[in-house]
Amino acid sequence: MGELLDFLPGQKDIDIASGEIWDLRDIVWSVAAGSLASDGVHMKAERRIGETDCYLKLSRYDSYRGIYGHESVNEVIASRLGKLLGFSVPEGLLRRCLVKIDGKEHETYVYIGKSYKTAGSRVAFEDFYVANRQSDQESPLDLCKRFGWADYIYKMFIFDYLIINRDRHGANLEVMKNGGRELSPYFDNGLSLACTCIDEAELASFSIMEDRPVNNFIGERRLLLNLGKIDKMLEFSELRESDGEGLFAGLHGVLPQRYFSVIWEIIWGRWHDVKKFRVV
Description:
Elements (H helix, E strand, L loop, with lengths): L21 E2 L6 E2 L9 E9 L2 E11 L3 E3 L2 H15 L6 E10 L2 E11 L6 E4 H8 L7 H7 L3 H14 L10 E4 L4 E2 L16 H5 L18 H5 L15 H5 L9 H20 L4
Parallel strand pairs: 1-6
Antiparallel strand pairs: 2-3, 3-4, 4-5, 4-7, 6-7, 8-9, 9-10
């Protein structure tokens, strides 16, 4: 990790150690739609950096605590994991930044991802489903099979299971029309891993293999049940125990080490569940 990224020329995927702080105080942030966080909102923005259209996200925010949590870090880890295993996840990096919200300045870590948007039109999957289902009995998953998207959705089930993604709601996947129809990359992956744990006491009681309820639009609202819906063998890269070092490279000063230990236990433990379902 730490290599130059294709989507942002001259930038490395992590550069925290340099001490550089990007000044993003001119950005106007908006609340991310569909957020599950009840104790704070997630804010997003778009910015053109150089010749690249980028998508920016903060961790949780409220007016009295400011910016807290570590969803922006989770986005980077999910991006790296997706690249490692060959899943369709946008490239992204983490930067220490100065931002302004409601007239107050905050120094925080911002996730900066490659925008997958193109000149073609795009629509939230939920809206596409409502407009294109053959009947009220055709489920979102059945519609995906009819359009030839089954493998793509099955891999999304696997990816979301590995990172405990709680928030794959009907707008967190899109249909893009660029001469045809294809599904967007798996974006908005911050509400995942140990995102509910704000301190080490919560980490100590966090159950890494618990099948938590999630906000899925396609499939079931339990990640393990979605693994059971995969009805064919799928091929992607093998995860190795040594891969944890690369997933967290350059991030160790951002969060306490215990967080990264728990996050790796989540990913590595759930990888073995995936293999039990014989989908690798």
